[in-house]
Amino acid sequence: MTTAQDKWLPITVSSKTLGHLSRGIYRGPASAVRELVSNAFDAGALTVEIQTGFPSFDVFSVRDDGAGMTATEFSEYLQGGVGDSSKREAELHPIGEFGRPIIGRIGIGLLAFVQLGEWFTVESHHRASRTAFRAQIKIRDILRRSVDADRTAERRAPAEPDAAQGYKVGEHLIERIPYSADMAGTLISTDVVREVITSDFGQTSAGRAPEPLPRRYSRFLARTLKCRAVGQLGAYWKFAWDLATLAPLPYPEDGPVEEVRGFAEVAQRLVKFRFRVVVDGLSLKRPVVLPNPEAASPDRRDLVILPFVLDETVSGDRLRVVGYFFAQATKLNPLDLAGLLVRLKHVAVGYRDRSLMNYDVAEGPRMNWVSGEVCVLEGLEDALNIDRESFNQSDPHFRKLQEGVRAFLHGQFFPKVLRKLARRRKRQQEQRDRKAAKTFRLRTREAVGVGYAFTHAEMPSDEWVRVDTRRKIVTVNDQADWPRLAAQRRNAQQAAVVFELARAHAELGGTLRERFFRLLTSLAAED
Predict the structure, then answer these.
(1) Which of 165, 149, 161 is nearest to 12 (CA)?
(2) What is the mean pLDDT of residues 17-21?
(3) Which of 417, 301, 315, 319 is nearest to 374 (CA)?
(4) What DSSP element (H or E) covers 39?
(5) CB–CB of 195/68 below 8 Å?
(6) Concatenated DSSP letters of 423-445
(7) DSSP codes joined into one string, 494-522
């Protein structure tokens, strides 16, 4: 028989878990820097400048010209404010004159820098109070072995968290410095860059040193759009591409696609935010330009571009989404553009999803022809996981978005893709047939020394091909029992034409059989 205890007992989280959290929770450098960029966006910055220390990559810094922080605010943040953001007090209200939505919610963005450097410095010049500080940050339990080594001691004497302070995951030292209006904003930097980043950024997939980023974005875009995958240019270029994809930046002038209902307004709003991110002198924009120029027909008839709109109330809260889906009847370059990207408050959540939110209908290679973006204007925030890379897939808003995407793809998008593909194949076959017919006419003229016109007509069923040597016309009987498949029918008709031409031109010499094979061989020799 079991009995209930007489009081509720606490549920605690081990320091090992928090230690791993302090090591970094983001997929890669671009995801980590995205969090710092988002913080700058929320702070009203116009520009974020990132320096990677190219070509040695032994330093890394992120500077913004936003509002900055006071030393008191920063100290309070580190002593209990990490993971307890106050920015949501302004829930859904714009910041300043640019109408920007508030991106941050959880308040762990500063820890993102841990993935770049084990020790780092924060310097902030607070514009409103005209004060400044510099802080050195050292995160405890950065290395896995340090975290794992604490397990035995933790089991012997489990730590009790301080109600006010929480668990200690690091240390900081703050000094006040003179304020400079030219330095207004925040600078986060390290000269102890993680070895894996220095190594990865320092070479391409072919083992060569990476090229510097160009100063003009058009050159960066032209180079990356010609690659099968941006990673071929190395982790350094991939970092710039990924950050441009993730951050709340405007599109290039000719991107992302031709205007689609609802999404043009989103693209215009990004411009009004007046927000720039610069990596080693390269001012980024979202690297989305569709279609690939060499893949599209001049009249764009092979393309499918459809808007996606979802506006429903789910569990009492509004879910409002606008976006587009694009497909071209051939592969996308680079493959980094393939898949669906979900943006929340104009910031990408993770990277492109090739499964299209686990779309459950087999579409074969067509899945790699599809690129799409959906921008969530309201809702879905409660589904966002702490890493801002993924969603809780049990959340009602996520489920509704997933259902909407699946229904749209199955009911509208892929049926239109299939119809376009069928028409494209028909046009291509007709072009091949015209080319083959022209070639056949030229080769028969060379073989028999006479140019014939070719036509099709209804004739008696026992007459398959008629050769009029006086009028120089060859007529093919459409009512004859030709094979049904187009390629087989064309081959059979050409063989019959060759036979009748051989019979009509006795001057070729030899028996009919010899003339036929001689003519057939001369035609086939050109293939």
Answers:
(1) 161
(2) 50
(3) 319
(4) helix 29-42
(5) no
(6) HHHHHHHHHHHHHHHHHHHHHHH
(7) HHHHHHHHHHH-GGG-S-HHHHHHHHHHH
Residue with tokens 């229904």: 407
Q: pLDDT-derived band of residue 450, with 50, 70 and 90 as boundaries?
A: confident
Residue located via tokens 């001012």: 283
Q: Count how many residues are written for the chain.
A: 527
Largest separation between any pair of C-alpha atoms in the chain? 115
| Predicted structure pTM score | 0.79
Convert the pLDDT of each residue in 170-197 to its tens digit.
Answer: 778 899 999 999 999 999 999 999 999 9
Using CA atoms, how far apart are residues 270 and 275, in angstroms rounded to an integer? 8
Please name the residues in contact with 167: beta carbons below 8 A apart, sequence gap of 6 or more: 13, 15, 18, 159, 161
Chain center to CA of 184: 34
CB–CB of 82/111 below 8 Å?
yes
CB atoms within 10 A of CB 117: 22
96 confidence band (pLDDT: 50, 70, 90): low
Tally: H helices and E strands in the chain: 13, 16
Q: How far apart are CA 85 and CA 74, in angstroms?
A: 12
- Give every CB contact of residue 333 below 8 A, 6+ residues apart in sequence: 225, 226, 227, 228, 292, 295
DSSP 168-199: --EEEEEEEE---GGG-EEEEEESSB-HHHHH
